[in-house]
Amino acid sequence: MTRPIATEARIRGRVQGVAFRAWTQAQAEKQELRGWVTNNPDGSVSALFVGPKAIVDDMVAQLWGGPGAAVVEDVAAREVDIPAELPEVFMILR
């Protein structure tokens, strides 16, 4: 089995008020990733994806599309340590 990785992503553009978090959760769940997605006060969205590298990389690439009403201007992603406390599923944080 492949060792999981964790990637943190920050998505900028018109990504709040367009169901971006729900879309991200649905895509991550389809790929059986763990982690979370949340809105940031500056209007961006942050997410943490944990799973096999190829699947995590694919999920990060999908962020450029987002749901129909989104306009993604930038996706900044970096690999991070897997957090000690990690949800068993992919969650939307408020």
Automatic annotation (TrEMBL):
<dbReference type="GO" id="GO:0003998">
    <property type="term" value="F:acylphosphatase activity"/>
</dbReference>
<dbReference type="Pfam" id="PF00708">
    <property type="entry name" value="Acylphosphatase"/>
</dbReference>
<dbReference type="InterPro" id="IPR017968">
    <property type="entry name" value="Acylphosphatase_CS"/>
</dbReference>
<dbReference type="InterPro" id="IPR020456">
    <property type="entry name" value="Acylphosphatase"/>
</dbReference>
<feature type="active site">
    <location>
        <position position="39"/>
    </location>
</feature>
<protein>
    <recommendedName>
        <fullName>acylphosphatase</fullName>
        <ecNumber>3.6.1.7</ecNumber>
    </recommendedName>
</protein>
<keyword id="KW-0378">Hydrolase</keyword>
<dbReference type="InterPro" id="IPR036046">
    <property type="entry name" value="Acylphosphatase-like_dom_sf"/>
</dbReference>
<feature type="active site">
    <location>
        <position position="21"/>
    </location>
</feature>
<comment type="similarity">
    <text>Belongs to the acylphosphatase family.</text>
</comment>
<dbReference type="InterPro" id="IPR001792">
    <property type="entry name" value="Acylphosphatase-like_dom"/>
</dbReference>
<feature type="domain" description="Acylphosphatase-like">
    <location>
        <begin position="6"/>
        <end position="94"/>
    </location>
</feature>
